């Protein structure tokens, strides 16, 4: 498997006024293609910070971050935004759909941001992914007229439509009931196996922990355990 992301002695702190709060301390790991990795640990252990750094939403204080062997530390905001748009998908616990747009339009939105001008190409891409996540029949429905599980399927379709190399999922089952959460995880496993998409989770959910192929446990900004099932 190819290494698609790498942290090398990554340190990250946040500053509140003159107080420095360390969040990550000399973190090292690699993420391989087609993997399903869950970062777990108590609140404040650094899980979400790792996702923010992987997603090019933040920069390390020290150390190096590589995406597909490219050192991204010194990229400017525009270059990071381009990298994010082209190679990284996001799934959030609150779905983050645009309420005035239909399911189809929410999924199409990243393609418009990527300036794909061919309408037929966009339509083919959107319909294909809506079909794969099982909600093509809901394409004209607004988020407010969908269940939580249906909204999360739209969010997954939106994340996958660009065919990113990695999907970052921050507590993707937190707002779902147990049955729906299981269905969403089954869908993600199917996407991982059929599309070879890499998934990285930040979670407290035992279901995701048992479902992931690899568990990385964080404590006080340190990796204390890294185990593959």
Tell me what the structure shows.
This protein is an alpha/beta fold and 229 residues long. The protein has helices at 47-54, 77-87, 103-113, 119-132, 148-160, 178-195, 206-211, and strands at 3-16, 19-32, 36-40, 62-67, 70-71, 88-92, 166-170, 198-203, 214-219, 222-228. α4 (119-132) packs across α5 (148-160) and α5 runs parallel beside α6.
List the secondary-structure elements in sequence, H or E.
Answer: EEEHEEHEHHHEHEHEE
Instruction: State the distance separating the first and last CA atoms.
Output: 16 Å
Rg, nearest Å: 18 Å
CATH architecture: 3-Layer(aba) Sandwich
Q: What's the story with the biggest beta sheet? A: 6 strands, mixed
In short:
This protein has 229 residues and is α/β, with parallel strands linked by helices.
Q: What does the secondary structure layout of this molecule look like, with pairings?
A:
Layout: E1 3-16, E2 19-32, E3 36-40, H1 47-54, E4 62-67, E5 70-71, H2 77-87, E6 88-92, H3 103-113, H4 119-132, H5 148-160, E7 166-170, H6 178-195, E8 198-203, H7 206-211, E9 214-219, E10 222-228
Parallel strand pairs: 3-8, 3-9, 6-7, 7-8
Antiparallel strand pairs: 1-2, 1-4, 4-5, 9-10
Structural key phrases:
alpha/beta, Rossmann fold, globular, 4-stranded antiparallel β-sheet, 7 helices, 229 residues, single chain
């Amino acid at each position: 498997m190819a290494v698609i992301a790498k942290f090398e002695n990554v340190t990250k702190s946040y500053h509140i006024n003159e107080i420095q709060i360390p969040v990550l301390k000399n973190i090292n790991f690699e993420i391989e293609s087609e993997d399903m990795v869950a970062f777990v640990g108590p609140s404040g252990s650094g899980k979400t910070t790792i996702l923010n750094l992987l997603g090019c939403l933040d920069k390390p204080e020290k150390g190096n971050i590589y995406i597909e062997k490219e050192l991204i530390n010194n990229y400017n905001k525009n270059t990071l935004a381009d990298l994010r748009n082209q190679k990284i998908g996001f799934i959030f616990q609150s779905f983050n759909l645009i309420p005035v747009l239909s399911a189809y339009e929410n999924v199409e939105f990243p393609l418009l941001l990527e300036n794909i001008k061919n309408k037929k190409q966009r339509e083919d891409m959107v319909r294909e992914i809506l079909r794969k996540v099982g909600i093509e029949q809901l394409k004209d429905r607004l988020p407010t007229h969908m269940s939580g599980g249906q909204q999360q399927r739209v969010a997954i379709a939106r994340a996958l439509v660009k065919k990113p190399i990695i999907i970052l999922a921050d507590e993707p089952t937190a707002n779902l009931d147990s049955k729906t959460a299981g269905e969403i995880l089954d869908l993600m496993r199917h996407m991982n196996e059929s599309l070879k998409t890499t998934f990285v989770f930040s979670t407290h959910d035992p279901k995701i922990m048992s479902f992931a192929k690899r568990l990385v446990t964080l404590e006080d900004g340190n990796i204390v355990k890294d185990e593959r099932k």
